[in-house]
Design a protein that fits this description.
Number of helices: 6
Number of domains: 1
Distance between the termini: 24 Å
CATH class: Alpha Beta
CATH architecture: Alpha-Beta Complex
Largest sheet: 4 strands, mixed
Order of helices and strands: EHHHEEEEEHHHEEEEE
Radius of gyration: 18 Å
């Protein structure tokens, strides 16, 4: 881990029973107890796969067995490990998951399925800044859904990167509608808008994904987990 890197790990969540068992064995006791709280089997499978893959992925960067990694959670729910130069974040939607691992800085990633959604205009009014609202409202109707998700994942990725989640207020991080790799403004306590970099992640045609990280040079790669 000598040079700056950003690695994107992604794949399908649903798996066969044999692989599910292998991932389950990587969980710690607290996580296994949480699995038991899910009533619906598909939610159990999703939790086992995403948490197991996260542990296995982090283990590939650390000299620690997956089940021995101490994954903690901040007061606002962001998972982290006590390591001075390894940062990660994860997101999932439907049957897809994505994990970002980097040695640069805190990082956020969000993944959403591009599908019709009721009351988009209400969400835009609540969660978008005025300049973003104007840009979105002026779009042709056929472009509004995908543009909504494009803005949304970038905002979610930022609030996840700074560790606050949506409690920060999605309207507080303003994306430049004319150049969506840049913020126009962010809350003062997190630096300036130019301190942060927005990257669109191309995983497949059905999902929208974005990464937010400090604005530095780095090597980037994507790895698909089968």
């Amino acid at each position: 881990m000598d040079s700056n890197f950003v690695d994107i790990w992604h794949g399908d969540i649903l798996i066969d029973e044999a692989k599910e068992r292998n991932y389950y064995l990587l969980l710690n006791e607290q996580e296994k107890q949480k699995v038991a709280t899910f009533i619906r089997p598909e939610l159990q499978k999703k939790y086992i796969k995403t948490r197991g893959v996260l542990r296995k992925t982090l283990s590939s960067y650390l000299n620690i067995e997956p089940e021995d990694i101490n994954i903690k959670t901040t007061d606002y729910g962001k998972p982290f490990i006590d390591h001075p130069s390894l940062f990660f974040n994860l997101s999932h939607t439907a049957n897809k998951f994505v994990i970002v691992v980097s040695n640069i800085s805190e990082v956020g990633i969000d993944l959403e399925q591009n599908k019709p959604r009721k009351n988009l205009q209400g969400l835009v009014k609540k969660c978008f800044s005025e300049v973003e609202q104007v840009s979105w409202l002026n779009l042709p109707d056929e472009k509004k859904t995908i543009q909504f998700y494009s803005f949304w994942v970038k905002k979610e990725a930022f609030v996840k990167a700074v560790g606050r989640g949506i409690a920060l207020g999605l309207d507080q991080c303003v994306i430049n509608p004319n150049n969506q790799t840049q913020f126009l403004s962010i809350p003062d306590k997190y630096g300036t808008a130019t301190d942060w970099n927005i990257i669109d992640i191309q995983l497949n045609k059905d999902d929208i994904c974005a990464l937010v990280i400090k604005n530095r040079e780095f090597k980037y790669k994507q790895i698909e987990i089968k």
